[in-house]
Protein 1
Amino acid sequence: MDVFKGIELKLLAFERLLHMHPEWHGKLALVQITNPPRSSGKDVNDLHRFVTELVDRINARFSVDGFAPVQ
């Protein structure tokens, strides 16, 4: 996971979109494919934890009938 690719910003924007447009619940998915981190350290670990928690939050809030919006 590259800390400069803006994954967290993409997820936050997707969460906002789903919040503002409930008509898209169960119809829209974000598929994010990432490469393993090229380095290790506190920054990378913190980002990974934040992104994982964000994905869990979005899926918990906006899942419909087993459909998870973030894949």
Protein 2
Amino acid sequence: SNAMMATATFLLVSAAMALTTQADKLPLGFQPHIVFFLGDDVGHYNFGFRGNPEIRTPNIDALVAEGVILDRHYVYQYCSPTRSSFLSGRLPIHVNTQNKGIDTPSGVHINMTVIASKLSEAGYESHHVGKWHAGGSCTANLPINRGFKSSIGYLSGEEDHYTQIAVGGVDFWEDNGPAYEKNGTYGAFTYTNRSVEIVRNHDKSKPLFLYQAWQEAHTPNEVPEWFQNPTINFTLRQLYDGMIFVLDSGIGNVTQAMKEEGMWNQSLIIYSSDNGGREDGEFGGNNYPLRGMKFTDFEGGTRASAWASGGILAHRAGQTETGLLHICDWYATFAYLAGVDPTDTRAAAAGLPPIDSMNAWDVVAAGSNSTRTEITLSANAFIQYPYKIVLGNQGGKGWWTGPISPNATDNRKNNNPGCPKTGCLFNIDTDPGEHDDISASNPDKLKELQGGLAQALATAFQTNSTPGYNNCTTLKEFAKNHHGFVGPICTPGL
């Protein structure tokens, strides 16, 4: 029995030592609750805190006042690549730069480690709510198989807000299967309720990671009437503003629940849009005063409105951070706060590129100089701060809006000449609106950035396979066998 006692004591001591070592590794002395909100197609100027006189974002504006604006927070110019970048900790050129259908291998490679897995490894309970769009062709792509304890939402890029109908059928998925009988409600209400429920039921002795990717303000332009502002006399702008008001209310409900549950003082809340708003056609976003929109590498497409809040940032209340950040940097930052090594050993073993993520905690929390000085935005754009190169005509979408847009007199034709194939050069510090191409007077700097971009692209990698998951059906067959719901068409091969 003495030997047993000694063993028991030893086990207790080693357990205590393990805890101490972990606490030593924790910069805050504890693991903060982390909530990451991702907006969809929300324009840079579509917030009250940006000075927009019309838009209604009271909850977001209050959170921003309690936190810090991340004024140079870059993303990809559209959807799936931004999500793939956030989840994998890689620049889009090293994971995915395409929006593909859910029946096509895409998004985050199944042998890459998603941030939820990293955090779960460190003792977090991770939950996914809302849009996924980071690969959905095989069962290994599902959030539930990527480190999330629970997941509800849609796997593709867009769907009807009320019916959840997307390409091929109803796209509404919970954990391991279709979310039968849960469809038919305005999406944001389902997602807000789920997130509030997660917060309320969370075991407070464990840290929480909630990844909530909102449907707002993506088309179709649908919003319940009571969220619409009758004083806005232009229908498109009224509908878009209504969707932003829904987003704001949802964020307000989730953060209020965290305060009521006593989690706020130990929490970090991040918001970013996945790309700039679209300003052409039937799209209601506005990126004023930045140039361009979603589907361009101009600042209006890639310099998303973003902010950080929560109890652990109370000391930064009301500040604006201008340090250079990319959405992939949250991977290493969250890993640092959780006390876990961000290295992706699984990807390395599979011969896949390493993470590009840089720990940005000192920038976010203390305003230190950013260690990031360069960002490869895409195959056609590169920042070496304060210089930026943009190649090609950018789909003609590189135009500017006014503060009240869309409106009846907007010229919404995508006929802006953009940039030559060799590139425009901008100083985005002195010319954030990208009005002045200075390439002619700075040929050496232009050449330097062209070289930087070429060097970055030499290591490009894109997810286009799901090794081992080759037992596949078609989306049509899948829907036929699942009451009209779509989902991952491939399972492990025999």
Protein 3
Amino acid sequence: MTKPPHSQKPKAQKSGDTKPSVGKICGAAALIAGAMVGAGLLAMPARTFNAGMGPSTASLTFIAIYLAATGVLLVECAYRNVSGPGANILTLVDNTLGPNGRKVAWVLYLLIYAPTLTAYIAEGGIILARAFSIAAGQTADYFPPEPFEIGFAATFAGLILGGAELVDKMNRIAVLLALSAFAAVALPAAKQVSGEKLERADWTYVPESAGVLVVAMSFHNTVPSVAKYLGHFHAATQAVVLGVAVPYVMYVVWEGLILGAVGPEDRAGDNSTLTTEIILELLAKEDGEIVALAIEAFSFLAIVTSILGVGLGTVDFLDEGLFGEVSTPDDAASMPLPRAIPAPADVSRTTAASPARSQTFGCVTVHDAHRRHWSVAIAFVPALAIALVMPSIFIPALEFSVGSRLVLFGIFPTAMVWKLRHSPVAIASAASEMRGGSIALVAVGGTTVVLLCHEVLARATSML
């Protein structure tokens, strides 16, 4: 098919007729922030301790800006894509990078989020079991975690089944409570901060923290859900930036409080590194009981906000990946979509007008009314089963997921946006483009390649 002449190129289209309310944008930002603020926040200073405050802050700033940029690129993919912002990452990849890219995206996504959901369910059950044991006046390990893992998984599977609106409301409450608990942990630590300890710095340790920060601060599987929920490019971009900014401030504050209160003399031995247990023990020196309760509360609420964001993104991913896109009149009325340039025959398959009423997988028939239930079950049941039987098997997978995240959420968005900006069938709109043009796009892609090469070399070295 010949490329349409320049004179026939349509005018820029807006991503939506009406910008969502500030409250709705903040709710979407809270979903992103919740995915970034996991229980790993408390342990982060133990991983960046050797570098010191200055280098750690520089590393945090660099990774936060990089992740925000890749998140905005995903938003641009959603609004430039012929399928519009209702599409999930599989369709975005398929429409731009083809069926082989879609297959790679499937594998990478499962490698990242199957262990992540398993870890959240296992940790949530352990925290609940410990809390109920202590509340009953028994030792912390009195109740087994398995029943609580089942209840935890069932509760959040039910919430996610209720849809994005319900998840948004519950997540806002959880984020506010998590911020309150974080303040209760941080205030006692502020009393012990020393300027001399904050000045300690060793820049040679900066590279080793980059991969850890990428895993701890990733939020990208929530972006397609946020784009669909808001239905407006600038609103979704603002949600990404705000959603990254709040956790970034929390990470920097926490790093300052801990690295300013803990010195090399507080490590367990001459050659040992700082551990999370040592950090929490030192914090509990003053107001110990209050700090201990706040730490437990924050750890649990961080798991709650994380599983809401990650769970919603994973279910949306499976829903579209297994059963295809669906478009209803209600969706069209509630979320105006931009008009795309008519697609040629080879891409029209991605914009089917009316899905089938049911689909058959072997001996199982799934009706459209039940597809969401199946997606939730496929996301949560295997994760729960593994959490019950052998939860530790996925810990190495989490540690090795840095490369997968960099490819799926760094390489792929850069390649997709580059292709969409030069494609005659993409939505032609400068209003739906990340600022900085091609220079910013090349910078993001180059940064991803550097981080990926470093990660591959680090993993190869560790295996020798």
